[in-house]
């Protein structure tokens, strides 16, 4: 498939799913009236539902999907390992820890962007740890082990913070933070996380050329005139910003950064730079699709987004492990 | 008539003896050291106990958010509701609710302590019953009956007013998007204040999870939410959702308080609060 | 025109001097073979010249900005890595990165350079195939083509013909010699002494971080040098195809 054809089809898919997301919800509204209410605005209940409940949910789904897909493709490109994805290697977990700490200590209320920046800070630590522990071209085994270690630590600390919270509801929040959900998010969450995610995307796209060159290894990449240190910096900050902000408003959503690049890779001829934008668009579609599914499958129960992702992602992950084992056999 | 009891009048002797024994028995029946380990029984007990009879209340009784008698509770030692704490107070009666930690209650009974359970009151008749039950348990039946009667009269007074008001539609909305239906205490408080509960329009007599969208589409005239706890929780975040702020632009918004929590005569203040 | 000049270059690892006070210059039109036993410092010398390692002394390449350096010299490392299953043409096109602004796609002259490199390495039949599915030798040729596509005056390669079959060893060495004839220069670390002697215009023999000999093959590959540095006996001999260097036997 030519890049142009892929871009067009992914964009069409994204727009379609975005519209579908706007039209699905417990209120059971008709298509025509929903869309008119959305555009016309006003204070009647229909417009309120469309503008304040459905719209932010759809926007967040797309933004988060782009962030997770992009971050997954970037980490995989840099580490030259198809198993590197923010959820698996503990970046989402560390971001969640940052966000939870900010919320429970009250830091999140101190200034406007405190919450997503705390998620960013947590994610930075997660990315740095994984780069330190596993390193580029480290074996998959090392990467997975490092990821398990970081995820476990972050999860345990998150649970501890929630356990010690004065708020009686806090302990049950662990499910949200570990499984993610877009339910009942508002436009304030969009304005909170959106700008930082955008900055993160910008930084990640600066690494595109180097990710392509890294196909040849680090020595050859340096000799091609590209700076590995600068790339590492943009990568760490970019992934941390996008995943950190996304996680701080939606909890840790895993497997998107694993599944989407895996699906897109054959369609872009395995080229890391093209995989970035393909995974961004694909990720947005995937998260929107999953968010639509959680509302259709069990509308009365609060099915968590992360649960659905895990059901799709885990078999794929097993398949990847199996393939990796065969290569080493 | 001579004051002296003549040896030859055994009936009078018997009568006096019987009276003395009964009085003694009644006094012996009334528990001397009562410990309450449940917020609702705390408040009922504080209302009806004799001076010095109530030895300890649960720590929740001092929490302004959930206890309507927090000030009064400052005058009592508090317990954490653990079997060890309670047993060391040497109570002859422990008051508790239906759902209070079953392990603790079972332990106390094993240790030979008398436990009296009070089910949650969900309507005004049940509140009157609990008052009477508390009176009996404390050996202060007369007080209990009087309190119950007073309560029933007050409620009747409020409700007769309510019938004449226009039925405005109210929504109750708590953390995690829960609402209370007509069959709950909160539901009855609403009804007594002359408000219709949108939960019953939606076919939820007991309440349950109410999607934010459905709440907005119902277009309530009044929105009543719970007071937030300290610290932050995602469950309560929904009460801060932008859409509720916009709903509150056209609807009246108020919060529940400690008067709503337990089935006590304080619900009358809750009803009056709604009517303003 | 000097393409590479090293003056008093020293590289230390811990207390050990891996490269010890090396000076050399390479002009245009030279095919220089860098020979020496394992651990002599061949790879270190080249990586230091490319500024991939810290080093003392001066080197004209180290003084260039990375982007300029990438247009002055192409580097083919010893580890052959193709991390993703991309097609051959994509790998070769990576050599054009120094000439492309960020995000730009290949222009006509880039495509020409890629095509030229592909045909020079005899890869026309493989152009559309997935590089990681080729044999080791074929992948090696793909990576050499990438370096050729970079179209630089100087070409540095670390063991470029290791693992290639005889025919392709010869054709690769011939390609490098052709580059030299065209006015470019090649500096290649080689283990194969006979091939080095046959195709290189000049050999640099290094041992324990120092240059032992530098000059035409006949002058460098003397019996004493070969015995002392490599511990083998070797000599030039007359063969049907001309004079060739032969390794004869190991010395005790």
Structure description:
The complex is a heterotrimer of chains A (329), B (276) and C (252). Chain A has helices at 3-22, 31-40, 45-79, 91-105, 114-133, 140-163, 174-179, 187-205, 208-213, 218-223, 228-250, 256-264, 272-297, 305-328. Chain A is an all-alpha fold and 329 residues long. Chain A has a single domain (84-328), classed as ABC transporter involved in vitamin B12 uptake, BtuC. In chain A, helix 5 (114-133) crosses helix 11. The model of chain A has no long low-confidence stretch (mean pLDDT 90). Chain B is built from 13 helices and eleven strands. In chain B, helix 2 crosses helix 6 (124-138) and helix 6 runs antiparallel to helix 7. Chain C has one domain (2-250): Rossmann fold (3-Layer(aba) Sandwich). In chain C, the strands form three sheets. In chain C, strands 5-6-7-3-8-9 form a six-stranded mixed beta sheet, sandwiched between helices. Chain C has a three-stranded antiparallel beta sheet with strand order 2-1-4, with helices on one face. Chain C has a two-stranded antiparallel ribbon with strand order 10-11. In chain C, helix 6 (166-181) links the parallel strand 6 (154-158) and strand 7 (185-189). In chain C, helix 4 (108-120) runs antiparallel to helix 5 (136-149). The longest helix of chain C is centred in the C-terminal third of the chain and has 16 residues, at 166-181. Chain A binds chain B through residues 25-27, 43, 45-46, 48-49, 52-54, 103-104, 106, 108-109, 165-170, 172-173, 176, 184, 186-188, 300, 302, and chain B through 175-177, 209, 211-214, 216-219, 229-238, 241-243, 246-247, 249-250.
Mean pLDDT of chain A: 90
Rg of chain A, please?
A: 19 Å
Order of helices and strands of chain C: EEEHEHEHHHEHEHEEHHEE
Superfamily at the CATH H level of chain C? P-loop containing nucleotide triphosphate hydrolases
- The CATH architecture of chain A would be Orthogonal Bundle
User: In the CATH hierarchy, what is the class of chain A?
Assistant: Mainly Alpha
Strand content of chain A: under 5%
Shape of chain A: globular
For the largest interface in this structure, which chains are involved and how many residues does each contribute?
A: A-B, 31 and 29 residues
The N- to C-terminal Cα distance of chain C equals 44 Å
Per DSSP E runs of 2 or more residues, the count of β-strands of chain C stands at 11
Shape of chain C: globular
Terminal residue distance of chain A: 32 Å
**What oligomeric assembly is this protein in?**
heterotrimer
Tally of individual domains of chain A: 1
Figure out the total of helices of chain A. Answer: 14
Structural class of chain A: mainly alpha
Number of domains of chain C: 1
The CATH superfamily of chain A is identified as: ABC transporter involved in vitamin B12 uptake, BtuC
Can you name the CATH architecture of chain C?
Answer: 3-Layer(aba) Sandwich
Low-pLDDT residue intervals, each spanning 5 or more residues of chain A: none
